[in-house]
Predict the 3D structure of the following.
Amino acid sequence: MNLDIQKKLILLVEDDAILKKLIAGQLQEIGYRVLTANCWRETGEVLSRSEPDLILLDMRLPDGNSMDGIEELAGNHAVIVLTAYASIQNAVQAVRSGAVGYLSKPVNLEELEIEVARAIENAAMRRDYEFVRDQQRAKRQSLMVGESPALRDLERLIEAVAQATTTVLVEGESGVGKELAAREIHDRSPRAQHNYVVLDCCTLHENLFESELFGHEKGAFTGAISQKRGLIEAADGGTLFLDEIGEISPAAQAKLLRVIETRQFRRVGGVKDLTADTRIIAATNRDLAVMAKEGRFRQDLYYRLSAFTVRVPPLRDRRDDIVLLAHHFLEKHDFSRRIRKELSRAAERTLVAYDWPGNVRELRNVMERAIILSGAETAIHSRHLGLPSAAGASSGELKFQFDHEPTLDELRQNYVKILHGKYSGHRAKLAGALGVSERNLYRLLQRYGLE
Ligand SMILES: Nc1ncnc2c1ncn2[C@@H]1O[C@H](COP(=O)(O)OP(=O)(O)OP(=O)(O)O)[C@@H](O)[C@H]1O
Ligand SMILES: [Mg+2]
């Protein structure tokens, strides 16, 4: 602490020469560096040149009342006001305007030392906190990787709904990023500083749902040895994410409907109606509309949940994101930090051509496996992906695209190119598939600019 003091800079704004000398002297003796100003004008000058860690500000200055300027000053600096004993009312008002504390005159030097140290320490902590918070915000920006128009639309929708408290239903196929989308809604909402609580409905035993969600009172059932708060309370002020909502029982659906409609709930075994200010986001990979129509999901609950629906598009409908995501998973992976991995062009084509029934999760798994399979090689080739190649799984599925009737040589060039991609660099295999010697293959590759 004392070592730190050496570097701390305090600006003392005081027009009373004797008091100024006394306070400045005391602070310097403790080890602070001190700048002084006599009035508002000088304060502005000093602040244009230096960045004090703390400002000690006399409430009454020759060129104006400090109350007017204090709010602006306190917005960027830690400010302690110095006030005549009689004007304690002013001090209170100054603190309301953002001052971190006040000292009454005549200033008690011991008190001065304590207050100054405390204010400087708090200001540092606040800066740290703001830094970490901003850093996390910046990190959050990159939660959802992708630049396709479909993903942009999704992000716009998320941004818009994040600001409201509406219940949101996130729909989409398995592995598309529903959970990520829900998290993004919370992170971008005014509730971001509060809890984000996840309840995975499909792993929950039916009669646990209620006690998990609403909590229980002591003795509510065998094993309820003490009172327990539910997740809905844990998420008070924040967001509760109900994953796989399509899986909950009819009884649970009824309970959930009640809490969404009335914001009220009871702990299991409890008699008090409790309220929680909890935003609910639900996700499902089932078609809830159909389930509701067929009577497998409560219609009224479905309407409540689907007040605002966010649909995460399948990966095959936003192929622009595939390569970006693949690189993202390469960079994220521990292995790739030791060995810098890259994707061959052919591997990229293979990834883009594939239909991704398992969506982003499947892509992540494929990349992780490819990293392992490619071992010490820096490049990941199509063969490491274990996917049907861009050329099609079997030669029977080859596709050629021409905007004119191709010549024989054009066809040949195209065919060589496709197989070259499929066997990504495996000379012998490629030659075998084309039915030419490796020597002839070499000529072909040169001729078509593939070497
Ligand atoms: N746009 C994206 N950017 C980066 N990672 C993503 C993106 N979308 C999904 N992922 C990742 O893919 C994986 C699957 O995503 P998530 O769990 O959100 O999918 P889901 O739709 O909830 O799947 P399920 O239906 O199986 O519950 C996670 O590891 C997630 O981090
Ligand atoms: Mg999920």
About this structure: Residues 357 and 422 are 21 Å apart (CA to CA). The chain has four domains: 2-136, 149-311, 314-388, 391-451. The two ends are 65 Å apart (CA to CA).
